Amino acid sequence: MTELNGIAASPGIAIGTVYLYRDDIPRIPRYRISQDQLEAERLRLDEAVARAGSDIEAIQSENGSDLEGDERTILDSHLLMLRDPSFLDSLKNRMEQELLNIEWILARTVKEMMNKLATAGDAYLRERTSDILDVAKRILNHLLDRSRPELADLDEEVVLVTHDLMPSDAVAMNKRMVQAIAMDAGGKTSHTAILARSFEIPAVLGLETISRTLSGGEKIIVDGNHGVVIIDPDAATLQRYARLQGEWQEHEVQLMRLNALPAETADGKLISLKGNIEVPEEVEGVGNHGADGIGLYRSEFLFLGTAQLPSEEQQYRAYYRVLEAMAGKPVTIRTLDVGGDKVSEQIRARDEKNPILGWRAIRVCLSEVAVFRTQLRALLRASVHGRLRIMFPMISGVMELTRAMEILEEVRQELRDQGVPFDEEIPVGIMIEVPSAALTTDILAKKVDFFSIGTNDLIQYTVAVDRGNERVAYLYEPFHPGVLRLIKIVIDSAHAEGISVAMCGEMAGDPVASMVLLGLGLDEFSMSSAGIPEVKRIIRSVSMAEAEELAGNVMEMRSSAEIDREVRTYMQERFSLF
């Protein structure tokens, strides 16, 4: 029996038989061509691209109305890549300069693009390599007259094990026969992960070598709740996981029954539960899990992995699409948050010694005012299509907030003068991610309509720990007394001014922390949509008095270890958390 640990990308437990799916890039021939052969090579590329496009259109046609929003969008994006004249022209130009066959030129160009993306600090940007590879494989297979294995033809239940499942393969596969996915590559924000969650297929990604370890036919357990894969389990392990699988399935059924019910405590306190999204494809999952809206839409996805800055029109279309899809539920869109560990090719600082403390988020927007104004124009124009809320990130003090509000008002006036309609009553809020902001929220609360606590950064800045540094990761403590005290200060200051407080960091989606946050007075929890039902279950099971008592006890404790032990024991005994 072998146990592997990876990334818990889609929840659930599956026990089944391995189906090993190999779709490696074939060996690419390299040979010189003459000037006389250039036209024939250009035609070969055009024909291969056209056939690759026909493949994708066939997937769309065969799946028809069964395609969900995220699936359709991914396939549409692949068609756009195939039809991008600048990409195809660059391949042809390079071929003409080097006089090498088009397969070699395509493979080398794609490899260079993927290597560049793989070193990006932002996870979303790194994980877009799968889309580039997907499109390139389709073209190469047609250039080389090579057929791909068809996952649509699966006719028995299997656990799919592969190095890297291409998004179009995930869409096309016979989902009824795929019990789970275990994959070498991928992360939580990869399209494979997004699609697995959409299909409600358990998935563990980032296993690195599992596709090279197995040959197919092995017995396997995939635990998408904890990121664990067990190969050739013994009888006792099989029995234990069969029991856990049954309990999980019953648990999921019970949770989904809560979808239409409000997140209301036993004594009548109504709490708002919303979803975080990184890309528009995730909107459907937010609705499927009974969210009250979107509490964090990370708009920087439009700015990452592109050759040029998105235009006002491109941004407008992305924003209104999400607003319309949410059908009147509130959508909080965070303005551009790049810098630090999120690298944009068009907007980047040079030679920063410590980028996490450097030129990022609102600091970038206040320096690159033209970029900021373009985004604000797009946001305001889109506001007529739904209930938009605008949120500024990384505010450290009142001067930054004042300047951001001045620019927003200038853009509003510009649109009024041009007769462009927008919602004049858009709520405007800020993220509290910096201790200086948390400690001056009594001042900041007088100038905004809401706060949203970004715990990922607030924790690392409070305890002076780089959350990406493994050597000090043990010090990254959400239950540090200093962190909890800052959260309490933010909530009390906001309520004193009559404004609400949300939390959109990872802590908001942690069921273990939910009762403490409720007791501290948090009004809104925003998280990955899959976590909403569990947090809703907890909120509906307790009274505010119980939550306040637990939070009060915690605030008297002296160390994060003591708090963590007390809260975990309490929550496990009370709620039997998975």
From TrEMBL:
Q: Where is the PEP-utilising enzyme C-terminal domain?
A: 256-542
Keyword terms, alphabetized? Cytoplasm, Kinase, Magnesium, Metal-binding, Phosphotransferase system, Pyruvate, Sugar transport, Transferase, Transport
What name does this protein carry? Phosphoenolpyruvate-protein phosphotransferase
- By its UniProt entry, which Pfam families does this protein fall under? PEP-utilisers_N, PEP-utilizers, PEP-utilizers_C
Q: Where does phosphoenolpyruvate bind?
A: R298, R334, N456, D457, R467
User: Where is the protein localized?
Assistant: Cytoplasm
Q: Which family does it belong to?
A: Belongs to the PEP-utilizing enzyme family.
Which BP terms does GO give this entry? phosphoenolpyruvate-dependent sugar phosphotransferase system
Tell me the InterPro entries matching this sequence.
PEP-util_enz_mobile_dom, PEP-utilizing_PTS_enzyme, PEP_util_AS, PEP_util_C, PEP_util_CS, Phosphohistidine_dom_sf, PTS_EI, PTS_EI-like
Q: Please list the residues that bind Mg(2+).
A: E433, D457
Which superkingdom is the protein from? Bacteria
